[in-house]
Amino acid sequence: MVDFKRLAHEFYKGLFKENVVLVSLIGLCSVLAVSSKFENGVYLGAAATFVLVFSELIVSLIRKVIPKEIRIPVFIVIIASFVTIVDLVMQAYSPQMYKVLGIWIPLIVVNCMILGRVEVFGYREPPLYAIADALGMGAGYTVSLLLMGFIRELLGTGKVEAFGTTLLKMPAGYEPASIFILFPGAFLTFAFLIAINRWLNTRGES
Amino acid sequence: MDEIVRLGLILIGAAFVNNIILVRFIGLCPFFGVSSKIQTSVGMSFAVTFVMTLASAISWVVFRYLLVPFKLDNFLYIITFILVIASLVQLVEIVLRKTSPTLYRAMGIYLPLITTNCAVLAAATESVKPGFFKMAIAYNYSFIEAVVYSLGIAIGFGFIIITFAAIRERLELAPVPEMLKGTPIAFITAALFAFAFIGFSGLFGL
Q1: Number of domain units in chain B
Q2: What is the total count of domains within chain A?
């Protein structure tokens, strides 16, 4: 019998309470690097979520036959296979984006988020929950990517664009602070995001 | 003579102008993870330098003489490189333990961590498929150039991680607002550090 309440719980925890990027500070490299544009986040988020869902599903299905001693190499080969699929599909259907994301596609293999979730969740739980967990974590990762991209593009260029339409524009007279789309802006934006997140979480305690 | 100048430019370009941590956001986990003490950061950067240079050299040979002739280079390179790195780390660990116990004790605990250090995979991938990241000067590196390129990346990595550790040791004594203590202030420091690296951008057209 499927426990829907638990399924929902596994999904939502990744989105907010255990958000990989903002709370656990995992998988930072890619978030800081590609968030200079809002649109990039959509693609990398989708790619990483795809890899995460299928790796967790496969590992969860064969978890009883993977010997404990060699589980890490097994995980890595499974993950690398799905990354290769993403790599080739993106190269074929969206060469423009492939050029922008560049090295970050092969680097999904060593994204600690994926190996971490496979190890702590996929290797222990049945497939259905593993998928819910992977979808939640992937969504949490994507949301953080989009949030960073949104703030940086808005402050850095004065407007946010995605797929050819302008989503939001700063009022006229705003001078774009281009430092936000350069590399120091990534560190700065992220520092304040986690500080605000921490403030929100500890507000009630003191 | 020209060749030496070219190698020098690749080295500077990889180490400073396109610094792997601050400019390109690769390898942030060890950057924030082990940079709280100078001693650990020195151990980590030596281990990374060693493995990174060796891994790139081996990946280059495997890619050029094994994957390309058999036309496997498009879809097998990710899995191949990650396996090369993982087995290399194991091998280095075994050899070090037997031959130089002192060095092993200094580097030992950092070695297993390096397998999932994205900087190593990035260096290996870029020295054979530099299309991912074009420094104006060269792609399609020769063997020597690939080794110099990854050595440059490793130098940039070590330089940043050791300097940053020195700053963080001082930061512990500084009065920091409660909300920014720990990770957020580290990110803000990294942002200020990154500002300095804007000065390098465009140098020699790298």
Answers
A1: 1
A2: 1
Dist CA A115 CA A122 (whole Å): 10
Rounded to whole angstroms, the Cα distance separating B105 from B2 reads 41
Among candidate residues A38, A196, A33, the one with its CA nearest the CA of residue A111: A33
Judge whether A202 lies within some domain.
no
- Mind listing the pLDDT tens digit for each residue in A138-177? 998 998 889 888 888 888 888 777 777 777 777 777 777 7
Kindly state whether residue B8 falls inside one of the protein's structural domains: no
* Residue-range definition of the domain harbouring residue A84: 4-153
| Mutate: best of A21, A28, A29, A35, partner B, most B CBs <10 A | A29
Give A111's contacts in chain B (Cβ within 8 Å).
Answer: 118
Taking the mean position of all CA atoms in its chain, how far away is CA B146?
13
Asked if the structure places residue A96 within a domain, the reply is yes
Asked whether this complex has an ipTM greater than 0.90, the answer is no
Residue B79: its chain A contacts at CB < 8 A?
77, 80-81, 84
| Host domain of residue B106 | 14-196
Distance from CA of B14 to the nearest CA of A (A): 15
